Amino acid sequence: MNSMTSDGYITADGRQIGGKLMELKNITLRFGGVVAIKDISFDIRQGEIRAIIGPNGAGKSSMLNVVSGFYHPQEGEVWFKGQRRQPMKPHQVAGLGVARTFQNIALFDGMSVLDNIMTGRLKKMKAGFLSQAIWWGKAEREENENRAAVERIIDFLEIQNIRKTPVGRLPYGLKKRVELARALAAEPQLLLLDEPMAGMNVEEKEDMSRFILDVNDEFGTTICLIEHDMGVVMDLSDRVVVMDYGRKIGDGTPDEVRNNQQVIDAYLGVAHE
Amino acid sequence: MLYREAGDFKTSYRDDSQTFPIKLERWGYYAVVALAFAVVPFVINDYWASAVLVPFLIYAIAAIGLNILTGYAGQVSLGTGGFMAVGAYSVYKLMTAFPDVSLLIHVVLAGIITAIVGVLFGLPSLRIKGFYLAVATLAAQFFLVWLFNKVPWFYNYSASGQITAPTRTFMGEAISGPAASAPAKYLVCLSFAFLVAWMARNLTRGSIGRKWMAIRDMDIAAEIIGVNPLRAKLSAFAVSSFFIGMAGALLFAVYLGAAEVGEAFGINKSFLVLFMIIIGGLGSIFGSFAGAAFLVLLPVLLKNLLVGNLGWPTDLAAHIELMIVGALIVTFLIVEPHGLARLWSLTKEKLRLWPFPH
After folding, report:
1. CB B78 within 8 Å of CB B267
2. Alpha-carbon torsion (A88, B214, A148, B205), positive or negative
3. Cα–Cα distance between B109 and A82 in angstroms, integer?
4. Which residue of B56, B102, B209, B273 pairs with B80 in a disulfide if CB–CB is 3.0 to 4.6 A?
């Protein structure tokens, strides 16, 4: 990493990364007696691709849920866009500019691809009840404007041919892509991807990697992702947080993390006396 | 050859998202509406109105209402009969308290009162789901029927405990009470059914409808996307009860003329409307009409066949009829669990390619 400052840094491939978009300070999360996350601090910077990795049960998904606002940590502070985030209901967080995808796909099976992606824009649709009931004025105008925005994302992710297909009929790889489309439709500043490539074959992984890089490149979206495929993580991300047993054991560029002794121990195991 | 998308170009999102995107379908819809409004009223007789068309239209409204709640928002309800009773008793109290106001306004007001009651009984849905919610709405059913039986104020202290619809007119024509003619009753119910179907379609295709369906399909994901579950569920209860209340009001004021709550709005009604949407198709406006038609027409058809054509005694025919309807429902659910609406959409998919399916 070249010259890390508070304003940002330049990545290995020459992209300018900005200041802190989100900062987590001394987060501790407990479920009853189980400590899922223990005193973790890290930041996510404007425009970067940040990865969270770690062995199974390390607390990665819990961490992502803290970032997305679904869990409220018992201790620590979450700062987003320079403001401390107060505990709030999950449906309120969506309005702040954080969108996410899920480890096990969480699409709405009974609705078409188009409708699923349109749900990503629900926070932007404000037409009143009456206007919608008679489908006149604001409701219709708003629907068509948002449809145009959704169609741009459909074009971007190359899913034009399935837009009217019910989601339940799609193969796994496409479902993952539709879920990404739904998250993108909200035009988030921070996009959280929970294992975007789990269960995919090599071609699907390549496609997904390309889309993630393109999203970051074209929309300037900051991305935070959890992934198990080390090759993908090391290639995609600018900086990596490594977790093990709820603690942070490494943080830095892929190269720094790869050579970190604690990380190697966590993945390969160490001999205990 | 006629049922084709080809050549029917859409150049705006507005055209692409219309209800009937295919030309033939669109013209078919206009034809049916024109027929229903402009031709049927002139040929309808008392038998057709009271045995077939008026109950069909009223139950279609109730089925659309329940379909919004159960089919679109995924909240199972067994309180339909109770909510119809709220509509009926509201319209009765309004009719007798304000005789000068038009019945049509009273029906809408009755719907609004039912919507408020529906929201109250919908509050538990925030905590309980599925079968447990069904049981909670069952409690609403029994409580409401009990209430209307027990408190004489609701039936204006009449000796029989019944409510009887007084005659009310609209543009000089009686639309309720014994003097109402078949075309008048039919037209009132048709207008309400048409408006309700149109509003339901509009609501379900916009952002409110997507919120409902998101809650139905996966409530946690819906919440993370930004759907407020409280508002989504309660708005579904409100809209659903509004329609069901109007159906109850029409059933009492226009169709039955007199009603006793336990008999007219008992648990049987709840099941009847639930069967209609299951057979018709959950989450489909067309399915609501199809289900209502199926369960209203089938008994009439069977009765005509058994008593009229085969000459069976009426009581025997009545029992056999129940058995046949029951067996048909079971068979139907095994053959096509997604209902008549699904059957219809499969037919349409086949028709698009016919006669060259490959």
Report:
1. yes
2. negative
3. 50
4. B273
For chain A, say whether B18 makes contact (Cβ under 8 Å). Answer: no
Closest CA to B206 of A152, A107, A182, A141: A141
How far is the alpha carbon of A182 from chain B, nearest alpha carbon, in Å? Answer: 9
Does pTM top 0.80 for this prediction?
A: yes
Say whether both A36 and A76 belong to one domain. Answer: yes
Tell me: do A246 and A199 sit in the same domain: yes
Of A148, A164, A187, which one is at a domain's C-terminal end?
A: A187
Partner-chain contact B12 A182, CB within 8 Å: no
ipTM score above 0.90: no
Task: Let me know how long chain A is.
Answer: 273
Condensed to tens digits (0 to 9), the pLDDT of residues B257-282 reads 999 998 999 999 999 999 999 999 99
Domain that holds residue B82: 40-266
Q: Which residues of chain B form beta strands (DSSP E)?
A: 163-164, 169-170, 173-174, 258-259
- Helix pair angle (B339-353, B285-303), 10° resolution: 110
**Structural domain of residue A166, as residue ranges?**
109-187
Q: How many domains, in total, are found in chain A? A: 2
Nearest-Cα distance to chain A for B55, in Å, is 25
Whether residue A177 sits in one domain with residue A196: no
Question: Number of folded domains in chain B?
Answer: 1
Give the residue from B16, B224, B243 with the most A CB atoms within 10 Å of its CB, the best one to mutate. B224
Distances (CA, A) of B226 to A120, A222, B69, B236: 8, 20, 20, 17
Tell me how many degrees the CA angle A14-A18-A23 measures, rounded to the nearest 5: 130
- Dihedral sign for Cα atoms in the order A179, A180, A186, A190: positive
Judgement on whether residues A180 and A193 belong to the same structural domain of the protein: no
Mutate which: A70, A92, A107, A111, vs B, most B CBs within 10 A: A111
CA distance A184 to A167: 17
Residues contacting B1, CB < 8 A, separation 6+: none
Q: A170 and A152 in one domain? A: yes
H helix count then E strand count, chain B: 17, 4
Distance CA A156, CA A169 (A): 21
**Is residue A218 included in any domain, yes or no?**
yes
- For A94, which of B12, B220, B225 is closest by C-beta distance? B225
How do residues A4-44 score in pLDDT, each as one tens digit? 666 778 887 778 888 889 999 999 999 988 999 999 999 99
Tokens at A160, concatenated: 């034009």
| Closest B-chain CA to A183 | B225
